[in-house]
Design a protein that fits this description.
The protein is mainly alpha-helical. It is 70% helix and 0% strand. It is globular, with a radius of gyration of 26 Å.
Length: 321
């Protein structure tokens, strides 16, 4: 008897991923490779047909970017704004996670609150920038009106004219937009933990704080690492709010590395080669920082376990030899 062949569904999986692969090759991989190539050329202006590779010094564009004082200042601005928004963002997200996942705190309408916390994340950057421009407008604006009526200010204050306030407002906008998503991710991670662990802790008399710091946090460490990496990548690529809110002002206090790259490519001389070089430098910075974070937050117990397994394998090989 002939053996009946089973139906293979693997080919359908490959068919379904073809659109994604094509989109990735056209809109991600190709632009990335092309950008990398442009960094080693003399490509300037809107005409992309007359450029050629640099002959005397192929790293000329990269050196020029590294020596650019504006780029150094923008890197500093980017790091400061990211730190100012990420620390309160993850702190509030963890606080909300502890609140919503605690079996002792039964919150009514938890789903409604989660939606409200996540809502700022789905608002477009242009809308948010326009909203905060209106809130902090001078001399008439909601923030100034509230502070004047409360007696905190004697006269209207131009917040957006000062560097510190500019950085602080941009950082607050980033924090306000993203803390909800971070909290939702952490809550989902906690809900994936085996509930028997929490029941055992409660039986042993562990307090809420002990349960959170000794059970919850260690079990969502992987998700926290994911959040840190993605937040860091997003923070170093921060463009929309700094550009649309104050256009890098006042006095370039909120101009980030991404805004610098945009200005190099599409403002003034259209220096595509310099913009590409700056992009690749930011890529290298992100890779280095991500590697450091992965190393610092690695699972040390798992690393030790792998070392022991390797030692045992070596001993077995020696004994067999």
């Amino acid at each position: 008897m002939k053996r009946k062949k089973g139906v293979s569904y693997a080919k359908y999986g490959y068919i379904f991923v073809i659109p994604f692969v094509i989109a990735y090759l056209l809109f991600t991989l190709y632009p990335t490779i092309y950008t990398c190539i442009l960094g080693f050329t003399n490509c300037k202006g809107l005409s992309l047909t007359n450029w050629k590779f640099l002959e005397e010094d192929v790293f000329q564009n990269f050196k020029a970017i590294l020596e650019n004082e504006t780029f150094k200042n923008d890197i500093k601005n980017t790091v400061i704004i990211w730190v100012l928004n990420f620390i309160p963002q993850i702190s509030l997200a963890l606080l909300l996670t502890a609140w919503f996942t605690s079996p002792r705190c039964k919150i009514r309408g938890a789903g409604f609150f989660k939606v409200m916390f996540y809502m700022p994340n789905i608002i477009t950057a242009a809308t948010v920038a326009y909203l905060f421009n209106m809130l902090f407008s001078y001399p008439v604006g909601p923030v100034n009106d509230i502070l004047l009526k409360a007696g905190i200010l004697d006269e209207a204050y131009q917040f957006t004219a000062y560097k510190g306030w500019g950085k602080g407002i941009v950082a607050f906008i980033q924090f306000w937009q993203w803390y909800g998503q971070t909290a939702i991710i952490f809550i989902a991670a906690v809900l994936g933990i085996n509930p028997e662990i929490f029941e055992a802790a409660e039986i042993d008399g562990a307090s809420s704080a002990q349960t959170f710091f000794r059970i919850t946090l260690p079990n969502i460490k992987t998700m926290m690492l994911y959040t840190l990496i993605t937040a860091m990548i997003g923070g170093l690529n921060m463009y929309d709010i700094p550009k649309m809110f104050l256009n890098g002002g006042p006095d370039k206090a909120t101009e980030t590395a991404a805004v610098f790259i945009y200005n190099q490519a599409f403002s003034g001389a259209y220096q595509y080669n310099r913009a590409a070089a700056a992009s690749m430098l930011m890529f290298v910075v992100i890779v280095i920082l991500s590697t450091i974070v992965f190393y610092l937050m690695r699972d040390k117990d798992a690393v030790e376990q792998k070392k022991l397994e390797r030692q045992l394998q070596k001993q077995l090989k020696k004994s067999r030899a």
